[in-house]
C-alpha cells in the first residue's frame, strides 16, 4: 500500500489539509523511522469538523434506522474485502505483525455486521396505562452529535466499537484520531464514504489532546462523548463535560486497568501459565485488559513461577528468531515503562525476567521491551498502584483465598480479572465478590466480542458499556409517546 507522506484530516466527506498547515511527525514503532507528517488540528479544524457534523445530522437521523443499517452492513463488507490494505496500515502505524492485526480487522467486521443486524432489532417497548383509552410506547431517538476519542491500541477495532453503534443510532460523528495512529481514522472514513455514508456524518481530526482535544471537548454542540484512553485525559474530559452550562453531556469513559489473576492450589497450572503469558504480553501489554498482577497460592507458587517463566522465555526466544515482538507505540512510552520497572527494582522488587530494551539487530531501532516479570513488589507501592501499560507483570505468593481476594480488590481500577481453579464454588464466589467489569474463570483477562458489553468501574470507567446492545443505550435517548383516544 502506498502510504501518504502527509496525513490529513477528513471533514465533510473528503480529505482536508487544514488551515494553518501545522504538522507533527509520526515515527514507526518497529524501526524508529519517520513515516509521515501529520496535520495538527486546533480550534479552527475542530470547529469546521463539528460544523460539518452538525449540518449533516438531521438528514442522517431522518434517514431511518433500517437505511442506516444497510450502509453499516455495506461498510462491514468493504472492511472484509479490504483486509490487506487495512492490515498494511495497522502494521506500519503500530509495528505489530501481519498475523497479529488480522484478528483486529476480523473483530471490526463482526462489529459492523452485529450493529447492522441491530437495525432490524431496534426495539422499543409498549407500556400499560391506568387509562384504558391510552396507548403508551417507548422508542429510541438519536442523541445528536457524538465526539469519539479512541486509543492507539487496536485502533481500527476501537473505532468500529464506537462508530458503528453511534452511526446506527442516527448520530453524526467527529472522531479525534489518536496521534500515534493517524491514518487509521482516515482509512475508516474512506470506507464509510464508499459504503454510502453521506458527507459530513463522519469526520476525523488529527492532533494532540492538549490543543485539539481541549477545543473539541469544550464545544457546546456535542451531546455525547465516548472516550477510551488514560485516566488523566479521562479526568480532563470529565471536567470539560461537567463544565457545560447549557446542558448535560452524556459521557462514556473507559480508562484502563490493573488487572489481576488468582491461581489456586488446585488449578491446572499449565493452563494457567499459558493464559497468564497470553494476558500479560498480548500486544506488549498495551491492552486495557492485559494482566498486571498474579496472586498464586503458596502451595503451588514455585511450580507455577517455573512454568510461567519458561513460557515467558519461550516467547522471548520467538521474539529473537522470528521477529514476533510487538513494539511499544512510541519512544516516550517505552522509556516511561523502563523507568517504572527500574523504580520498582530500586524500591526492592526482584527482576525475574526482562526489564530492558531489546537490542537484536532486527529490533534495536524499534521501541521493543523484553517481556518483564517482577517479584517482591510491595502491594501498596506506587508501582503496584499504577497502570504500567506495557509487557510487565508482578507475581505475589498468597496464603489463601481471602488474602488473594483482599489484594485483588485493593486496586482503584475495576476492569478485568481472572481466576484459575477446579473448585466451582470458589470460582463463583470470586465472580460474586470481586468488583470488576469482566471476570474470567480459567482463562485470560483479555478478550471480548462485538455482542459482549465491555467496561469497568472505579478508575477503569464510569459505568457505560461498549460494544454490544448495551452501547445503544449510550448512543441513543429514550422517548415516551402517549396517544389518547377521543
Give a description of the structure.
The protein is α/β, with parallel strands linked by helices and 486 residues long. The protein is built from 15 helices and 22 strands. The mean pLDDT is 93.
Low-confidence stretches: none
> How many strands appear in the DSSP assignment?
22
The largest sheet is: 7 strands, mixed
Name of the CATH homologous superfamily of the largest domain: Aldehyde Dehydrogenase, Chain A, domain 1
Q: What is the CATH architecture descriptor of the largest domain? A: 3-Layer(aba) Sandwich
Euclidean distance between termini CA atoms: 66 Å
The SS-based structural class is: alpha/beta
Shape: globular
Strand content: 15-25%
Summed up, the helix count is: 15
Mean pLDDT: 93
How many structurally independent domains?
A: 2
Instruction: Kindly provide the name of the CATH class of the largest domain.
Output: Alpha Beta
Computed Rg:
23 Å
Strand adjacency order, main sheet: 15-16-17-14-13-19-20
**CATH topology category name of the largest domain:** Aldehyde Dehydrogenase, Chain A, domain 1
Helical residue percent band: 40-55%
Topology:
Blueprint: E1 6-7, E2 9-11, E3 14-16, E4 23-27, E5 34-39, H1 43-62, H2 65-81, H3 83-94, H4 98-118, E6 125-127, E7 134-142, E8 145-149, H5 155-168, E9 172-177, H6 182-194, E10 202-206, H7 209-217, E11 224-228, H8 231-242, E12 250-254, E13 259-263, H9 269-281, E14 291-297, H10 301-322, H11 331-346, E15 350-353, E16 372-375, H12 382-385, E17 392-398, H13 401-408, E18 413-414, E19 416-420, H14 424-433, E20 438-441, E21 457-458, H15 470-475, E22 476-484
Parallel strand pairs: 1-5, 8-9, 8-11, 9-10, 11-12, 13-14, 13-19, 14-17, 16-17, 19-20
Antiparallel strand pairs: 2-3, 4-5, 6-7, 7-22, 15-16, 18-21
Helix pairs in contact: 1-7, 2-4, 3-4, 3-6, 4-5, 7-8, 9-10
Amino acid at each position: 500500500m502506498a502510504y501518504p507522506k502527509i496525513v490529513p484530516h477528513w471533514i465533510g466527506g473528503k480529505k482536508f489539509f487544514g488551515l494553518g498547515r501545522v504538522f507533527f511527525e509520526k515515527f514507526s514503532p518497529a524501526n524508529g523511522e519517520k513515516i509521515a507528517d501529520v496535520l495538527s488540528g486546533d480550534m479552527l479544524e475542530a470547529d469546521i469538523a463539528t460544523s460539518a457534523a452538525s449540518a449533516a445530522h438531521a438528514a442522517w437521523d431522518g434517514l431511518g434506522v433500517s437505511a442506516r443499517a444497510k450502509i453499516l452492513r455495506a461498510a462491514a463488507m468493504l472492511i472484509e474485502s479490504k483486509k490487506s490494505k487495512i492490515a498494511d496500515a495497522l502494521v506500519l502505524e503500530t509495528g505489530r505483525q501481519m498475523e497479529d492485526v488480522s484478528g483486529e480487522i476480523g473483530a471490526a467486521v463482526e462489529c459492523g455486521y452485529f450493529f447492522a443486524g441491530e437495525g432490524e432489532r431496534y426495539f422499543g417497548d409498549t407500556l400499560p396505562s391506568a387509562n384504558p383509552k391510552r396507548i403508551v410506547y417507548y422508542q429510541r431517538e438519536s442523541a445528536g452529535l457524538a465526539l469519539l476519542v479512541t486509543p492507539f491500541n487496536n485502533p481500527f477495532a476501537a473505532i468500529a466499537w464506537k462508530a458503528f453503534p453511534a452511526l446506527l443510532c442516527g448520530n453524526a460523528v467527529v472522531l479525534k484520531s489518536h496521534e500515534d495512529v493517524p491514518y487509521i481514522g482516515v482509512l475508516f472514513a474512506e470506507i464509510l464514504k464508499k459504503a454510502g455514508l453521506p458527507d459530513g456524518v463522519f469526520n476525523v481530526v488529527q492532533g494532540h489532546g492538549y490543543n485539539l482535544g481541549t477545543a473539541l471537548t469544550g464545544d457546546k454542540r456535542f451531546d455525547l462523548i465516548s472516550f477510551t484512553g488514560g485516566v488523566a485525559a479521562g479526568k480532563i474530559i470529565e471536567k470539560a463535560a461537567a463544565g457545560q452550562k447549557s446542558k448535560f453531556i452524556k459521557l462514556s469513559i473507559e480508562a484502563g486497568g490493573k488487572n489481576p489473576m488468582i491461581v489456586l492450589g488446585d488449578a491446572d497450572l499449565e493452563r494457567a501459565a499459558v493464559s497468564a503469558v497470553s494476558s500479560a504480553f498480548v500486544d506488549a501489554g498495551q491492552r486495557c485488559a492485559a494482566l498486571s498482577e498474579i496472586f498464586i497460592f503458596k502451595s503451588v507458587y514455585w511450580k507455577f513461577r517455573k512454568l510461567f517463566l519458561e513460557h515467558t522465555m519461550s516467547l522471548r526466544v520467538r521474539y529473537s528468531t522470528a521477529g514476533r515482538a510487538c513494539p511499544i507505540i512510541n519512544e516516550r512510552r517505552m522509556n516511561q515503562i523502563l523507568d517504572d520497572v527500574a523504580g520498582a527494582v530500586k524500591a526492592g522488587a526482584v527482576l525475574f525476567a526482562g526489564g530492558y530494551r531489546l537490542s537484536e539487530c532486527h529490533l534495536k531501532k524499534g521501541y521493543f521491551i523484553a517481556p518483564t516479570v517482577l517479584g517482591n513488589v510491595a502491594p501498596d507501592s506506587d508501582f503496584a498502584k499504577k497502570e504500567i501499560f506495557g509487557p510487565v507483570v508482578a507475581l505475589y505468593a498468597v496464603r489463601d483465598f481471602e488474602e488473594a481476594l483482599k489484594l485483588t480488590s485493593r486496586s482503584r481500577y475495576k476492569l478485568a480479572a481472572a481466576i484459575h481453579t477446579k473448585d466451582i464454588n470458589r470460582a463463583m464466589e470470586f465472580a460474586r465478590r470481586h468488583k470488576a467489569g469482566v471476570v474470567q474463570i480459567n482463562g485470560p483477562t483479555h478478550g471480548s466480542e462485538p455482542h459482549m458489553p465491555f467496561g469497568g468501574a472505579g478508575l477503569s470507567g464510569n459505568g457505560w458499556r461498549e460494544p454490544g446492545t448495551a452501547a445503544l443505550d449510550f448512543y441513543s435517548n429514550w422517548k415516551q409517546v402517549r396517544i389518547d383516544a377521543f
